[in-house]
Amino acid sequence: MNDSIIEITNVTKSFGGVVANRNVSLSVPRGRITGLIGPNGSGKTTLFNSIVGYHPIDSGSIRFEGQEISQLRVQEIARLGLLRTFQTTRIYGKMSCLQNMQISIPHRKAGFFDMFAYERPDVVERAEHLLSFVGLYEKRFLRAGSLSFGQQKLLEFAMALMNEPTVLLLDEPTAGINPTLINGLIDRLKRANAEFGITMLIIEHNMRVIMNMASKIYCLAHGEMLAAGAPEEIQGNQNVVDAYLGVH
Amino acid sequence: MTRTSLHPVTIGLLLLVGVAAPLLFPAYTNQIAVLWLMIVFASTWDILGGQMGYNSLGNIFFFGAGMYTCAVVQIGLYYDVGMYTSGARTTHIAFTTAQYFTGFAIGTVAAGIVAAVLAVATSWIVFGLRGPYFAIGTLGVAVAGAELVASWQWVGAASGISMPVFPGGPQTQKLFFYFLLFALAFVVLLFLRWLYSTNFGMAINAIRDDEEKAEAMGLYTRRYKRTAWTIAAFFLGIAGAIFGNMTGFIDARDIAFPTTTFNIFMILMVLLGGKGTFWGPVVGAVIFHVIKEVTWTYFLGWQFVALGLLIVIIVVYFQQGIVGWLMEKYPDRFGVRVAPKEREVRSRAIELAPHAEGAE
Amino acid sequence: MEQVLGNLSVLVGMPIFNLGLLIDGLLVGSIFALAAYGLALVWGVMNVKNLAQGDFIMIGGYITWTLGRYGIDPLLGVPVAAVVLWGVGWILYRTVISKVITRDLFTSLLATFGIAIVIQQGLNLAFGPDTQSATSDLPTLSFADGLITIASTRIVGFAFAIMLAVGVILFMRKGRMGQAIRATAQDARAARVLGIDTEKVYSFTFCLNAAICGAAGALVAVVWNVQPFMGTTYSIRLFVIVTAAGFGNLPGVIAAGFGMGVFEQFGGFILGAEYQQALIVLLLLAVLAVRQLQQLRVRQAVQ
Q: How confident is the model over B56-76, as pLDDT tens digits?
């Protein structure tokens, strides 16, 4: 596990008396898709939020490309190239899809005067390319808020790609999406991983989806890491099955 | 490309109206001058309130700060400020024409700069705050400014400052200040049109729509917010410097930092015209100012009660404003006006997208 | 500056003065705590930040003052002001608040700001801009050879404030309506599902808050004075108190109310009365700044 891009060691996070994550350790290998599963309330989203800097952790360490990030704030982490999408889709509702894309360019090296930069043709071109990648090219001038939920989800994904992240954290990318569209989404996620070389950590409830994509899967239950391994191992792991069925 | 400046015809019309107004209605020169000031107020308030979704109740702070800065510079260049403002003056005070204009020019520039610096300084206090806390925090900044200046002996405390007298006849004076305020409003409109066409406009729109998302995407949100606040402050500071000299007498609570008049007018005009639209604030300012000037004297002391009621009514029943309402009602009309070419459509989208929050 | 140092040396040199200021501060603070409780109630239950809170207090004060001019003891003004303000609150709720309650927060803030302006200007037209005070015939008590003087109106006011606060807290704990209010504050939708008429709860909460302000205002008129434009200062004070304590933390709100009273007495004594307003506003900014620093540690913004 030498080439892991995110290295989480013994992270504990509690809200008041409730321990949401206890001594969780996890590592995300570079260039792969890693899955994070677990029953509702097992602390998956909490772990996500800890990684992206949404709240502080009580103890442990989170390293991104060797750099400790558990003290950094959301924007700083995002600018390092570690990006997340939201479980409840979030886009800029009153702007057009294209604008949503244009404002999502990476801001890592943005200087003061970049604030007043004009629209760049190469940015527009890239935005349009990515919009067609997710199948929203036709709708690029529409108000993003008027898109359907599934389309907004695709837009959010395209915005994330626009940002050229090193690692993408996806919180339930298929939740609420019409089942017939799921295959298309899986395909796009895989292509983004293969073509753009983006490492992914995905929270997913849909077992078929995650087993299909991930090369390694972690399973959380009651805030603790229950099992880790290749999809086949997880599928055969009795503890995991019990956790989902509530045998405890 | 998005349009980076106003249409030449619009610019021409603006200039025409600006120049013709005092010639056509010489009796109302001062009122029209204040109208340009109101447009500056509304348009600069809309940078934060409309385009960025940060509703400030304290923009007037920079107007007052600019006014006092200019006064202090104008006086301080030639006299001792403490002596000038004290009731018991010992020296005869007079400014030559050269002294007046030198002081005024330097003072105005200083006013803009000081207001901008104060904006950067206060941004550390107010921009960790969101929503209602931001509104209350900025109101706090404005009231604090008023109270501190009102109890500061050196700048005349509660008795204010009589500004240097304009060296020229009353007619020249009127026109001089009229054209200054008109020029300021004109520059503000051109500048904002350019500003909204750059990345900046998109970024502050993104902050308005979902700041948390913008943060999660790595946008330097603080930097945008601080810059927006500073830009508004800079123009308000200059406006304060000009207006202070125009009225000839300044005082902290009623003229420089009037939290319940000018400060509220700004918000009211923007809400009336349409938050987050380019022309909304201008339309709102014109309508509000004309109605106010026409009806004000008929209220016989009840003006401010009426003002308060107007706020409540607009806020409760008509929040998207005139331009916002038109866009909601006839989105196609706004579309038809622009050629259906792709590039043009995009620029229309920029104007269409921003809407009063809660409008949906 | 010398004056400030002089005042400070008085405090250091004569510790008994401190005691006097402290007692005065606590007595006055009880009124702040009462009104702040009302603000926190509306804030927490309805998510409306009432910028007209201080002006409600002023209405209550003027009612008491008017009664006093007709020879009615101002302390009787407390119940009268509470009842009248209940009515005012009801009218405002029906006409304005009920329409903005579901909208974004700035809408309700601005609407209440508009109400505040109407009240201020209305009071100004009705009573003029002068500072007024309702006088009671109660004597002023002196202790420690006249170094500590306490107007007994303040003690009576304190007693009233405590009684009212205890009454309201008991009502919120035990009363049927109080329980419904707390349920609505926790989760309005769940409360609606369980058959609580949240509309009625909101209306009641707003009226209750107005009545509390009325009573507090009556006490303010007795122990202090009223002036049409003083309402804003009270609103800011109450916001400082509630923001410092957090609106969900009612014991904290009451403690902060007392703290505010003491702070103002000392601040006013040391710096001089003319800086009192500035002092309150600066305290607001300081509290907001501190809250931000706290939030920074948990990587969040104050919202």
A: 888 999 999 999 999 999 988
Task: Tell me which of C16 and B291 has the higher pLDDT.
Answer: B291
Q: For B84-109, what is each residue's pLDDT tens digit?
A: 887 656 566 778 888 899 999 999 99
Coil vs helix vs strand at A25: strand
CB–CB of C111 and B130 under 8 A?
no
* Measured distance CA(B345)–CA(B328) in Å, rounded: 17
pLDDT of residue C270: 82
B268 touches chain C (CB under 8 A): no
What do you get for the CA distance between the two ends of chain A, in Å?
31
Contact (Cβ atoms closer than 8 angstroms) between residue B161 and residue B85: yes
| Per-residue model confidence (pLDDT) at position B163 | 87
Share of chain B above pLDDT 90, in %: 34
Q: Which residue of C has its CA nearest to B143?
A: C281
Partners of B224 in beta bridges: none
CA–CA dist C164, C219 (Å, integer): 11
* CB-based contact, B301 to chain C, within 8 Å: yes
For chain C, the farthest-separated pair of C-alpha atoms sits apart, in whole angstroms, at 64
CB-CB contact of A69 with A82 (8 Å) = yes
Q: Do B128 and C296 touch (CB under 8 A)?
A: yes
Q: Give chain B's radius of gyration (CA, Å).
A: 21
Cα A76 to Cα A70, A80, A171, B211: the distances in Å are 11, 6, 20, 15
Write the residue in A75, A83, A91 that is nearest to B220 by C-beta.
A75
Q: Considering only residues 51 to 80 of chain A, which have any Cβ-Cβ distance to chain B shorter than 8 Å?
A: 52, 74-75, 78-79
Distance CA A84, CA A80 (A): 12
- Chain A touched by B215 (CB under 8 Å): yes
pTM score, whole prediction? 0.86
Reported as type and span, the H/E element at residue B352 is helix B342-352
Contacts with A65 (C-beta within 8 Å, 6 or more apart), sequence order: A5, A80, A166
Segment C108-166, tens digit of pLDDT: 888 898 899 899 989 988 888 888 877 766 666 666 666 666 777 778 778 888 888 88
In C, which residues are within 8 Å of A74 by CB distance? 299
